[in-house]
Amino acid sequence: FDPDMVLETVAHAPSEFILHGRRPERDLRIGGDWVTYASVASAPNYVDLDGVRRTGDRVGYQDFLRLGHMLNSVHTFAGYPVEPVDLHASIRHLEAAYDAHTLTDKSFHVYSLGRQRNLDGIEMARISRGVDHDAFEREPSITSIINASSPLRYDHPMLEGIIQMSARNQVIIITPFTLAGAMAPITLAGALVQQNAEALAGLAFTQVVRKGAPAMYGGFTSNVDMRSGAPAFGTPEYAKACLVGGQLARRYGVPYRSSAVSASNSVDAQAGYETVWALWGAIMGGANFVMHGAGWMEGGLHAGYDKMVVDADLLHMVSAFLEPLDTSDDALAVDAIAGVGPAGHFFGEAHTQARYQTEFYGPMVSDWRNWETWTDAGRPDARTRANTIARSILAEYEAPPIDDAIRSELRDFVDRRVSEGGVDTDF
Known about the structure:
- The chain is α/β, with parallel strands linked by helices.
- It has one domain: TIM Barrel (Alpha-Beta Barrel), CATH 3.20.20.
- Helices cover 43% and strands 13% of the residues.
- The strands form four sheets. Strands 3-14-13-10-8-7-6 form a seven-stranded parallel sheet. Strands 5-4-16-15 form a four-stranded mixed sheet. Strands 9-11-12 form a three-stranded mixed sheet.
- Helix 3 packs parallel to helix 4, helix 3 runs antiparallel to helix 15 (404-419) and helix 4 (115-129) packs parallel to helix 6 (156-167).
């Protein structure tokens, strides 16, 4: 084992690249000082708008796509927000990708669950963008998460995913799933040592396949509840791991992936503070790509429409927080301060009047009215307000434009592959 060789190999990965959407307006710059937010991904269950917990199905999956498409703080779909289990596994990747490429124009994801699924997903992404093979290889357009089978192992489907995706210059997000005390040492430092070793191995392999192929250093180190063995998220340990992971990614000069996650079973205070704590660790760690940014619940066991809206508002707040402070002469307001003078107020001052409609972040979910100004409708909590907003957004959804010829080519590709049986399964 030659550590210098590993670092020299990883150094070929770009520090920044463009992830292309179906339309140029959806292109995302990954790396540097840029932050991209992805929706929740891969949940097996979801909670619908009536509060009923359901096994993932295509109807729910499609509505998550619609909701995420309409929420501006959801930049990309890095996986199925909820798994459409009612689609047989042999053809699920085909129908799910068709939905994603027609219900939204944001970039999508390929699950590395076998060579043919990768090839199908890559070709559908190319068709949806309406470009030839050469242009597609020049322009990364789709992502795939590669998880190490911690400890210290990559299985065949994951390695096959790297081979197929990196060979076509598409984006690989290497993410060891190192839970301290379970799949990694119980000490946080030990778990991070293992995370780093697994991440570097995966990153190096992407560059062995193709020098310069885009890849990200992902961290998903957290701890488990040692009383039950259940994963814990949004913990102090998770936030610390996010900070260290970001420093390591910058050391190796590659973009950094983290997550905004929670172990809470409902949209309650726990869901709020755990998500904020996880997101704070990710952002302060310098994450360039925040997975599960909107809608993640129950340690990933379900996705929620209400939670997606609450999280989207939180992501907007983070974006506003990251905007540099305006220190222009007008913003410094020296003349306004002098004009109002001692013991005055600024409500009616011209400087306030010129700015009051746009100066502050306007929350989507928060209700800032005090006791006396609540309406006769009662005192709805954040989840109730988010539910109302989600219903409104879905009612107002409009599908993005797509060329009829591209839609037809996508449909023909799916129908042909379905008629061929999709991919082999053992059931």
